[in-house]
Amino acid sequence: MPACWQMPSAASILCGIKKLTRMPASKRLWSLPR
Fold this sequence. Notes:
Number of helices: 2
Shape: globular
Number of strands: 0
Strand content: under 5%
């Protein structure tokens, strides 16, 4: 699986949501490169 920031923006948003449901560290999602 490619990293979230390597995907198209729509896919990266979905990937980020999946990560948010797994880990409560929501700031990690926003700290990732866009």
